[in-house]
Design brief:
Length: 164
């Protein structure tokens, strides 16, 4: 008798993110230009699929996907850092939506055109699956810079008020 490893009943997040990146060059007949179907959601041929992630949601069409995540944000400073980082990444690559989908912290926008620019697909899958952790570790430097500013400014303002 041979042992067989049972496939998990629900695929894990990485499998679903990988699935969301299986895109094809598909010209939307509704728009007749290379417009992302996941944004227009008007054509019947777009083949919309929706999957839940542990902390997120995927919408996939033939030529584009949205991967939205709910992140644990500790305070308004985290909110601000995520907003600024999202905006900067959106400007630089378009891979992040400037405004996340309603109810989510961040939305990755994956298109067939973007996937042509991705050198290592597994790296991108890993990045999105691990984004909560990456975000928290990237905020350490920002927090420490803010604390340093707070300490030195307090000292200077006390001096300005001539309080010893
Ligand atoms: Zn379409």
């Amino acid at each position: 008798m041979s042992m067989s490893i049972k496939k998990p009943e629900f695929p894990d997040d990485k499998d679903r993110i990988r699935e969301a990146m299986q895109l094809e060059r598909y010209i939307c007949p509704h728009r007749e230009i290379n417009y992302p179907c996941v944004i227009c959601k008007e054509c019947r041929e777009m083949d919309l699929k929706q999957y839940s992630l542990k902390n997120g949601f995927i919408e996939k069409t033939k030529n584009s996907s949205l991967i939205s995540l709910i992140l644990e944000l500790r305070d308004p400073f985290d909110d601000m850092l995520l907003r600024r980082l999202s905006f900067a990444l959106a400007e630089a690559t378009g891979i992040i939506q400037k405004e996340p989908e309603p109810g989510f912290s961040i939305t990755f926008y994956i298109s067939e055109a973007l996937m042509e620019k991705v050198q290592e697909k597994e790296k991108l899958i890993e990045f999105i699956a691990d984004f909560q952790h990456t975000f928290l570790s990237e905020t350490i430097a920002a927090r420490s810079a803010l604390n340093k500013w707070e300490r030195s400014t307090t000292q200077r303002l006390l001096w300005d008020m001539s309080i010893v």
